[in-house]
Amino acid sequence: MDELFLWGLLGLTFAECKPTGELFATPHYMLRQLGLIDAGQNRGGRNYQQFRDALRRLSAVHYESTAFYDPIRQEHRHIAFGLLSFSVPHDPKSCRAWRILWDPLFFEFCQVTGGRLFFNMDTYRALDVTSRRLFLYLSKIFWRRGETGWLDLSHVGYEVLGIAKTVSVTDIKAHQLTRAITRLTQAGVLAEKPTAECFRKVRKGVHQVQFTRGRLNPRAMRQQFDASHSALADLLRQLGLTDSQVRLVARRYATHVVRVWVDITMAARERFGASFFRKGPAAYLLDNLKHAAAGQRTPPDWWHTLRKVEERQEAATRTTTDRRSRRRNDVADTIRARLEKEVSHKLADIVRDAFEGSSKEVGELAGTRLDSLRAICEHLVRKTSLKS
Predict the structure, then answer these.
(1) Going by DSSP bridges, is the β-strand pair 98-102/22-25 parallel, antiparallel, or unpaired?
(2) Is residue 8 domain-shared with residue 103, that is, in the same domain?
(3) Prediction pTM value
(4) Among the three residues 243, 270, 299, which one is the final residue of a domain in this structure?
(5) pLDDT per position as a tens digit, 352-383
(6) Could you tell me if 140 and 177 lie in one domain?
(7) Range of the domain at 293
(8) What is the CATH number of the domain that holds 167?
(9) Inter-axis angle of helices 243-252 and 281-293, to 10 degrees?
């Protein structure tokens, strides 16, 4: 699910006319664009909390590589970067927009020509985890050409699909990768041809795989920007602006100025109510945008104070969540240590009793001791799962 949010939010960011390192939108808009909620029965509920939790996890991700190929400078470099940071209202019921800011270095790499991730979100959402990863990998290659070269099967399985290295290459070929190829073929991403033609054996233990593009071309998936369906247009309509006014605002004012005053207007409506506006939120917003663009108006002091309060509340919530997570991990570590101690004691008893008895008694005693050991292990594992 975290991968769906990450790539989906990147897609929404680059769908704007002039993408910037910030995505400013309501959670309802983002979840609706990702297909997780709709106007029917699936209206959200726990999806909002899952979205908030996913952002918290993604913001904690830190990537480092000592030999990362920089597509801008065209050389290998030692780099380290995060993915994103975010600022959301402390109150889950707040109608104000969420701010998602991409790490500048990560965003720079995503903007490189040829490295933009254009793919069909509906196709991506319909796939399982393994097929999704292969789909993203192939979308990058199929953007340039219709067929991949012969790829090492172990590299595709372990590095691209994220399959554990304890799984043999034979099992990867027979199960995970074959299923993924079948799913992508049915979706039109891969061309229809016998699965056996996709693989070849180089020598013992070394296999290769090749993929051919199907009817879905990543270049054809790229959608033209439509300002009337952007995140900012959605916010402006919520404040009462008409479609013609939305186009006027998008054409006349800088995006960062519009974002600030949209947030001020939504905060004023949420904090002070409808009585705060003389003519309504739309008129208030348009008047402030006009004066702010001319350099005659700055954000009010109450808005700065409100943002500081919200940042402190969000920081306190994160601290509490991290403290609870550390406490759960400490409990789990304690139980695991107890498990190891009990196991070592039981194994010692088995070895001691085995050497003291006859061969027949050894087998019976060992079986009894192992059953007891297995029961202890199962009990402690269940207890660890409950505590975690």
Answers:
(1) antiparallel
(2) yes
(3) 0.65
(4) 299
(5) 655 555 444 544 545 555 556 566 556 555 55
(6) yes
(7) 235-299
(8) 1.10.10
(9) 20
Which of 161, 186, 221 is the endpoint of a domain?
221
- Over residues 94-144, the pLDDT tens digits come to 888 899 999 999 998 887 754 455 667 778 888 888 888 888 888 888 877
Domain count, the chain: 4
Span 258-269, mean pLDDT? 91
Tokens of 313: 């509340």
Nearest partner of 124 among 14, 25, 34, judged by Cα = 34
pLDDT in tens, 176-228: 888 888 999 998 889 888 877 888 888 888 889 999 988 877 666 555 545 55
What residues contact 98, with CB distance under 8 A and at least 6 apart? 24, 25, 26, 27, 30, 86, 87, 88, 89
**Residue 100 token pair:** 């998602």
Q: Locate 55 and state its tokens.
A: 């952002």
**Tokens 């509490």 label which residue?**
320
